[in-house]
């Protein structure tokens, strides 16, 4: 049986925000960014083939600045080393803002235990009571065919099943959460003692994922049964390639396909 690693974060493209400027006044009104002044910096003066998507946003008085960097949670070695326009932005910044601090979470045993508890049904029901029979049987077969099903999982909520399925797709794609951009920047920020801001939190995301209605979770989990794992991995690799090249149009197309 393969080791399970719960990935609370989704595989959606997210924005990792790197703040720069005067750290003592970030968040004050005169430091709020003017989004209309943003400019794309994903295709110029880059030696690497990895263009990525980054925007520089400057406040009206030009005293505050932030960088918006389209991040991804699973990658491979080909994204490193990062282009200088990315590392320079990080070095000039006072804060790193991420979706949530997964590195801190992985070191907090208490939170991990609480998360595991939250992922299990405690009302006497199982996932069979919350999914339609066809979707459940297809998901069970998908996991079983990939040596990733145990009867214990029936007592786990859909968020746990989504994590299992995402892990399978990631593994099939050849990417790894260990190379994710959020993890890379978090480790770098901690090493350099740079302040880290969480846009959300693991608890927030867990409450959201475990709070979906049965109709919503049926829709979400059914999406894993409409394609084979190979097809899903191919789609992830297409998304990854578009992200690396900074192809915004392709990202939009894939995200709305």
Notable features of this structure?
257 residues; alpha+beta; six-stranded mixed beta sheet; 42% helix
Percent strand equals 5-15%
Element string (H = helix, E = strand): EEEEHEHHHHHEHHHH
Instruction: List the total number of helices.
Output: 10
* Helix content class: 40-55%
Q: Numbering strands along the chain, what is their spatial order in the largest sheet?
A: 2-3-4-1-5-6
DSSP strand tally = 6
- Can you summarize the main beta sheet? 6 strands, mixed
Mean pLDDT: 79
The chain-level structural class is alpha+beta
Q: Which stretches of 5+ consecutive residues score pLDDT under 50? A: 1-47
Q: What would you report as the Rg, rounded to the nearest angstrom?
A: 20 Å
Outline: globular
Report the span from N to C terminus: 34 Å
Describe this structure in words.
The protein has 257 residues and is an alpha+beta fold. Strands 2-3-4-1-5-6 form a six-stranded mixed sheet. A hairpin with a 6-residue loop joins strand 3 and strand 4. The longest helix is centred in the C-terminal third of the chain and has 17 residues. 30% of the residues are buried. The N terminus is likely disordered.
SSE topology sketch:
Layout: E1 14-20, E2 39-40, E3 54-58, E4 65-71, H1 84-92, E5 93-98, H2 102-106, H3 109-118, H4 133-145, H5 158-173, H6 181-191, E6 195-198, H7 202-210, H8 214-222, H9 229-245, H10 248-255
Parallel strand pairs: 5-6
Antiparallel strand pairs: 1-4, 1-5, 2-3, 3-4
């Amino acid at each position: 049986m393969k080791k399970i690693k719960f990935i609370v974060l989704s595989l959606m493209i997210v924005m990792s925000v790197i703040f720069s400027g005067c750290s003592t006044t970030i968040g004050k009104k005169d430091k709020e960014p003017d989004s209309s002044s943003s400019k794309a910096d994903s295709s110029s003066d880059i030696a690497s083939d990895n263009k990525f998507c980054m925007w520089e946003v400057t406040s009206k008085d030009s005293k505050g600045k932030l960088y918006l960097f389209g991040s991804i949670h699973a990658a491979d070695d080909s994204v490193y080393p990062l282009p200088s326009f990315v590392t320079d932005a990080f070095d000039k910044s006072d804060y790193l803002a991420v979706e949530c601090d997964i590195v801190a979470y992985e070191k907090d045993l208490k939170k991990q235990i609480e998360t595991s508890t939250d992922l299990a049904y405690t009302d006497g029901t199982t996932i069979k009571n919350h999914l339609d029979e066809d979707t459940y049987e297809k998901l069970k077969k998908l996991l079983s065919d990939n040596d990733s099903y145990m009867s214990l999982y029936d007592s786990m909520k859909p968020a746990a099943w989504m994590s299992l399925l995402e892990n399978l797709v990631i593994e099939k794609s050849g990417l790894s959460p260990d190379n994710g951009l959020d993890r890379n920047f978090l480790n770098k920020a901690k090493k350099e003692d740079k302040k880290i801001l969480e846009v959300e939190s693991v608890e927030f995301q867990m409450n959201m994922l475990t709070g979906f209605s049965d109709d919503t979770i049926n829709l979400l989990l059914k999406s894993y049964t409409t394609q084979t794992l190979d097809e899903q991995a191919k789609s992830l690799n297409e998304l990854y390639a578009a992200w690396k090249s900074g192809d915004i149009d392709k990202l939009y197309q894939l995200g709305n396909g």
